[in-house]
Amino acid sequence: MDPISQGALGAALATSTQDRKKRLFTVAWLGALAGLAPDLDVLIRSNADPLLFLEYHRQFSHALVFVPFGALLVAWPLYFFARKSLSWRQTYLACLAGYATHGLLDACTSYGTQLFWPFSDARVAWNNSSIVDPLFTLPVLALVIAAATLGKRFLGILAMAWALFYLGFGWVQQERAMDIADTQAKLRGHVPLRLSVKPSFGNVVLFKSIYENEGIYHVDAVRVGLSSHWCEGTSIARFDKRTSYAELARDSQQALDIERFRWFSDDYLAQDEAGRVIDMRYSMIPDSIDAMWGITVDATRPHDHVGWWASRQLDAEQFAHFTDLLLGRGCKEVSK
């Protein structure tokens, strides 16, 4: 999730577990910094290997088993600044509370978080929250700031209550969207090999639906508000290395990198018109195949690493279309 949300939630849990008025400000900034700390793993990257950061981002630093150690690493330098207000134990507990929120909050998004590393490399993605959602973040942030400045613990508790309520609401929305997507796929005469729905940018009303049927990915949008809408999208063939890059040896670096990217993207791979291998899970427009990132494969250089590209641009026309989808314009209303 975005850094503001991570810091705000870390501060919220830290302040909600502290009962002394004069300490809440210190506890809040300790919890906020600890809530941000796991994302320092983005510094693990390599110019020679563009996919290295995919393996380590949301890996060990986000794992549940690492939480006590991560909190210790954060508390140790911060105690120098907090010791006038808090004991070592209190400093550590504030950092522990903040650090513990990070991986769980990230797992609510679609990106995937290795919560159970090193016992499993599965990327947990509950798909009940967008990576950025002002309706989640702003109330938590406002309540945390008020708790820290006014010395009111119950405001920190309210911040946590809002966060849990909103994430729970996102789960209900995700289930509603899943039911609609499954029904619409069957109305097309399809039997999805697998189906998933993921929140679009900044909300839990409009979802991206992806399902596979006979080697084809079908991408649509589902809006679940007071009324529900199905917004028909498009389709694309599933990526198949055997046909696209049959000449690549299985042990070549390019082939190995394709498999690394396949693991990262949960095998939601396709090949766009430019020949790039794309992660189907993400697009700025939920009924679109316009991917936000992917890899470029060069079969003539099998021993080199693949290239990496990312694009998060949204032009005026796309923004207008996104707004229409969010409001249900041009979509078919689904009867209950």
What is this structure, in a nutshell?
The protein is of the alpha+beta class and 336 residues long. The chain has 10 helices and 9 strands. A hairpin with a 5-residue loop joins β5 and β6.
Strand content: 5-15%
Helix content: 40-55%
The overall pLDDT, averaged over residues, is: 95
Which H/E pattern describes the elements?
HHHHHHHEEEEHHEEEEHE
Q: Would you report the number of β strands?
A: 9
Main sheet attributes: strand count, strand direction, barrel closure: 5 strands, antiparallel
Provide the fold topology:
Blueprint: H1 3-16, H2 24-36, H3 52-56, H4 67-82, H5 88-107, H6 134-150, H7 153-187, E1 194-199, E2 206-213, E3 216-224, E4 228-237, H8 241-244, H9 253-264, E5 269-271, E6 277-279, E7 293-296, E8 307-310, H10 316-327, E9 332-334
Antiparallel strand pairs: 1-2, 2-3, 3-4, 4-9, 5-6, 6-7, 7-8
Give a description of the structure.
There is one protein chain. Helix content is 44%, strand content 15%. It has 10 helices and 9 strands. The protein has helices at 3-16, 24-36, 52-56, 67-82, 88-107, 134-150, 153-187, 241-244, 253-264, 316-327, and strands at residues 194-199, 206-213, 216-224, 228-237, 269-271, 277-279, 293-296, 307-310, 332-334. The strands form 2 sheets. A 5-stranded antiparallel beta sheet has the order 1-2-3-4-9. Strands 5-6-7-8 form a 4-stranded antiparallel beta sheet, covered by helices on one side. Strand 5 and strand 6 form a beta hairpin.
Protein traits:
single chain, alpha+beta, 5-stranded antiparallel sheet, 336 residues, 15% strand
